[in-house]
Amino acid sequence: MTRIRALCISLSIWLLAFSASANTQPALSLTEVSPGIYFHQGKIADLFSTQFDPVANITVIIGEEAVAVIDTGGSRRAGEMLYRAIRQITALPIRYVINTHVHPDHNFGNQAFVSENPEFIAHARYAGDFDAKANYYLQRLSAPWFEGTTPVAATRLIEKDADIDLGQRRLKLIAHERAHTRHDLTVFDVNSETLIAGDLLFVDHVPSLDGSLIGWLSVISTLNTMPYQRVIPGHGPIQTGKNAFDAQTHYLRSLAQEVRAAINQNIDINTASLTVLRSHADNWKLFEQFHGRNVIQAYKELEWE
Ligand SMILES: [Zn+2]
After folding, report:
1. C-alpha 119 – ligand 1 centre gap (Å)
2. How far apart are CA 75 and CA 240, in angstroms?
3. Ligand 1 mean position to 173 CA, how many Å?
4. pLDDT by residue (tens digit) across 244-286?
5. Rg (the chain; Cα; Å)
6. How far apart are CA 239 and CA 245, in angstroms?
7. Within its chain, how far is the Cα of 56 from the centroid?
8. pTM
9. Domain boundaries, the chain
């Protein structure tokens, strides 16, 4: 073989490989964290100021007969990348798409799953909040990455709790009282004792309060009575062991304590939002983006006590 011919052959192989990879659409990375449970950790960033997605965590659970997806990313693109990743792992039907709450970083990828005709499951109070807020969220997502995104509503609402069966794999869904939002839904995989907490648990990413501070602390106590080995938060890395909620509980309790003190000292809400709990700033990422709003939300709740 002449050198030129060899060069031509290797060049055409390279071109073939290049065009194949150009045709291959990207898929999200999914890591198997326990048999049949796959996880994608979102980047710790605020959806409304990032150019990319996903920023929230995604969990996929595979039983013997069906697949459940818990949260779908915050854009059509992220949802499609997730869908492709699932199809690289299993051909089983995706029967359930579970949305832990209405914040768009957790459910704006839903549309990638419509063709599978799953049940889109959420908390009973999710529906009204979705109708009220989805378009507002959509308008705020103007980066090119979010083009073509269409929010998809829930089709099955959970009042209190429900079990779903993926085939030798039971998931317990619980609709909670007001906490991170007024419609948080958790999923417990009985086989692996994994709790998928949605935004009832933030790790590293500062908690963001859009429901009730006192309610959230109370829901955490309930979740802590569950026999979990592992908790998948809405943002940040997976937690194992019984102290999964400790750092967040410390933040929320301190927030309640300092906001009450500010109210008692007649410090107004705007001043409080700039001064309360600054000592926790180094403990969390995105503190400047979310903490001031948490103080305002807590103040409005606690001034009525
Ligand atoms: Zn959220």
Report:
1. 21
2. 29
3. 18
4. 999 999 999 999 999 999 999 999 999 999 999 999 999 999 9
5. 22
6. 9
7. 4
8. 0.91
9. 19-242, 245-305
